[in-house]
């Protein structure tokens, strides 16, 4: 039987690439409803045989009605890791389950940041199949050095707890430093590589923000999308791929040191005359202030955007048959092309939008 899927964020970097790759993925029968915010987006999603749904995603009544009215049994949420309205979405899926007898599924896109030093997560290696992951996340709001990161960890737990209580299968999907040209109709570039470039262009040099050589998981955008697809394949084929407290997925072939990313970006920017010196030095307070101006965020939030330690490792994807095409080091080999791509789209680059005056802890 064909399944109805609700996709948010189709005009974004990750959602757009997912939608494009879905066309040739050979998945069992399904129909995509893509949420849109403009007529242009509505026209654009039709080229993928998706049905546009014009919805205010903060209006949980409207979202619930759309899920129930369209018999949606699978939700792919790709637009806001801080969405505390998700219980209403999950309740609506439970109603569909009751009315149709179909199993129902909710996937939330979070971020590797929520499993990092910025969010009070462990700083020793731990895997996305760790049976203690839910209890780790439940403890993070108290430990998180940044309020918003605590809220995001809470949001992940909320999804799992609500879904468990209502008989809905849930998945927490964590993209990391994603890079490479997006294939969708909307945004073509990522967030974190962009932050490194934006801050460097503003200060005319690449600064590091941490002591030591912290590492972070990385992933090519095509590999990130194929993990979304393999999860969906498992769901549509009715396989048990692990859900709820066992439903975390990090999309990554491995980690690299921020220092190596900075060095590669510095070289590519120097070649293009965008920095005065390709050598990477530690940022002092004045540099952080200037980087913050470039990133349109308070100086205290600069390390959140382009540094920190994330020791989460990816096991779950491999267990369901996902094989990333690119190894982690490819991000360094590809840095010159990535910088060229970012500079091409810099005018329209999206940022985290952290207003001036926001404090790490309120
Ligand atoms: N890219 C990465 O490296 C990365 C890493 C970790 C986590 N993530 C998370 O993954 C998700 C997708 O990332 P992305 O890179 O694809 O982001 P993106 O390119 O900025 O796209 C965001 C998408 O969400 C939509 N959106 C945002 N706020 C919305 C709202 N209030 N109502 C309806 N739609 C809304 C946007 O629609 P419009 O086009 O209309 O604005 C767009 O389609 C985000 O939640 C992001 O935080 C991304």
From TrEMBL:
Residues 5-233 form the NAD-dependent epimerase/dehydratase domain. GO terms for molecular function: aldehyde dehydrogenase (NAD+) activity. It comes from the Eukaryota. SUPFAM superfamilies: NAD(P)-binding Rossmann-fold domains. InterPro entries: Epimerase_deHydtase, NAD(P)-bd_dom_sf, NAD(P)-dependent_oxidoreduct. GO terms for cellular component: cytoplasm. The lineage of its organism: Eukaryota, Fungi, Dikarya, Ascomycota, Pezizomycotina. This is NAD(P)-binding protein.
